[in-house]
Specification:
The chain contains 7 helices and 23 strands. It is an alpha+beta fold. The chain has 2 domains: about 170 residues, Rossmann fold; about 325 residues, Porin (Beta Barrel), CATH 2.40.160. The protein has a 14-stranded antiparallel beta barrel. Strands 1, 2, 3, 4, 5, 6 and 7 form a 7-stranded mixed sheet that branches. It is elongated. The chain starts with a helix and ends with a strand. The N terminus is likely disordered.
Length: about 500
């Protein structure tokens, strides 16, 4: 009954819009249908499948269908070209708005081992919202036309499309396991080699007699610094949004949600330190994502240097009961080499080799809401060698617990919030939140605010802001280039923090 009411509402909406106010003639809803993105051996069936899809949509009765060739002609009249890889809803909306469409339909198709799988999304151009999304595949031997028919019916609320011949579709198969294993082994291996050399090379200094009190240290982990520009502009609240190459240093669980290969280069000036970072993320399989990162920190005189090697991976759980949305679990391994130079007889110096582990979770609560959880540094241990005293000792790093959520309001506005929950008496609560809004499918403005609360000392407000510029680079190389920048204002006005990041999608 519910499905019938949905179909009747859609038909009624089409009927209500089916009379021209001036002539009284019947009109229809204009719908643009983009060509399928093809995976595996889909090229063998893509031509007929595209024809069948247009025919199925046209048979509904209240659509006037425009295929991709017609849309390209409409774009050319406005002096635009059809993007080579337009599967982001905001890109599709731009095409629909330019060509005068009321709705747009786009998706992907996979043909593998005599099975057809499709993903399709129907969006409303005027309201800039998703009407429905369908992920469906047929049993072995089921004709692609039957899968498409079931998908179109389901798009329009016909639950009868569920039958034994149809199953949920979780996306195309991916086989980057070798890249995952080689890059992970290379990153950790390089980190251990560098750490061992850094630890083993002695500094030239005179030995002195001194006592060392091995007391636990408290504070933020080094990799918790808001390094990349987009997270930093959102007040470093990024645990629930780590589905890109930035996520390698923020929440490894987000790597299972990456859309494809991404690389990031970043620079930050913070507290008199120069920070440089590079990261790479990709999918190893349909369910597994991975990433590698390097983080280098040093002062201008190189009295203190740190080099982190970070390798992360995550697994996404798709095959769950219908009442549980997909979620992912992830972990990263960090190897640290640190060196502090002795500058006088009374100052200490030394080097360390350390390793740490982060554990994370990312859960898709709904189409618009995600929840993230991160246990950072569980644990981190640095094995120090003090060159002034000759002593060697372990210095632990305190663990931190972070959780947060995101809300995607339409295709243009993004909200995020995050909190740090104390695990030790001397750790403060921390609350942060941010807002991001996109203009003209090109430019983004971001703002955030953060503060430690219930701390035993005076804490400042940290007010952040930044921008993002996303450029389509398909005609040159890759798919897109994003340039992000941010600035942090501290109400105590003690430090200036500036971030610049460049993110490239292949």
């Amino acid at each position: 009954m519910k499905a019938l009411l949905v179909v009747l509402c859609i038909v009624s909406a089409g009927t209500a819009a089916a009379k021209d106010p001036d002539t009284g003639a019947e009109s229809r809803i204009n719908i643009g249908i983009l060509n399928f993105e093809q995976f595996d051996r889909a090229a063998e069936i893509a031509g007929k499948a595209q024809y069948d899809l247009v025919a199925l949509v046209n048979d509904i009765g209240f659509y006037r269908c425009y295929d991709q060739a017609a849309l390209e002609k409409g774009l050319s009249k406005s002096g635009k070209k059809m993007p080579l890889h337009c599967r982001d809803p905001r890109c599709v909306l731009d095409i629909g708005k330019t060509t005068g469409m009321d709705r747009m339909l786009f998706g992907s198709i996979e043909w593998r081992n005599s099975r057809c799988g499709v993903r399709m999304t129907l969006i409303d151009v005027s309201t800039r919202t998703t009407v429905e999304t369908v992920n469906i595949q047929g049993a072995p031997g089921v004709a692609p036309a039957d899968v498409l028919k079931a998908a179109v019916e389901k798009l329009h609320g016909h639950e009868g499309a569920k039958n034994s011949a149809m199953e949920n579709y979780y996306g195309p198969k991916v086989h980057n396991e070798r890249q995952f294993l080689i890059s992970s082994a290379g990153c950790i291996g390089a980190g251990l080699l560098y750490g061992a050399i850094n630890y083993g090379v002695e500094q030239k200094t005179e030995k002195i007699a001194a006592e060392y009190l091995d007391e636990p240290q408290s504070g933020l982990a080094t990799t918790g610094v808001p390094l990349f520009a987009r997270p930093a502009a959102l007040a470093n609240a990024y645990v629930a949004a780590s589905d890109d190459a930035y996520g390698v240093l923020y929440n490894p669980a987000g790597l299972a949600w990456v859309a494809g290969p991404e690389a990031v280069l970043a620079y930050q000036y913070r507290f008199g330190l120069d920070n440089f970072a590079a990261s790479y993320a990709n999918k190893a399989t349909r369910e597994i994502g991975f990433g590698q990162a390097l983080l280098y920190r040093a002062d201008r005189d190189h009295l203190m240097t740190e080099l982190y090697f970070v390798s992360a991976f995550a697994y996404k759980f798709n095959r769950l009961p219908s009442f549980i949305r997909p979620f992912s679990l992830g972990a990263n391994v960090k190897v640290l080499g640190k060196r502090v130079k002795s500058t006088s007889d009374i100052s200490s110096g030394g080097s360390s080799l350390g390793m740490g582990l982060d554990l994370g979770l990312l859960w898709e609560v709904s189409d618009q809401i995600r929840y993230g959880l991160l246990f950072r540094d569980v644990p981190v241990l640095n094995y120090w060698k003090n060159v002034k005293t000759g002593m060697r000792y372990f210095e632990p790093q305190p663990s931190t617990l972070l959780m947060g959520g995101t809300f995607q309001a339409g295709y243009s506005t993004f909200l995020i919030a995050e909190g740090q929950i104390p695990l030790y008496k001397d750790q403060p609560w921390k609350m942060a939140g941010g807002l991001e809004h996109e203009f003209f499918n090109l430019f983004l403005l971001r703002a955030g605010i953060q503060r430690e609360i219930m701390a035993p000392y005076e804490t400042p407000w940290k007010i952040t802001g930044g921008f993002g510029l996303k450029v389509n680079t398909e005609q040159l190389a890759g798919r897109y280039l994003s340039l992000d920048g941010s600035y942090e204002y501290n109400t105590l006005h003690v430090f200036d923090v500036i971030n610049i990041s460049m993110r490239f999608g292949f």
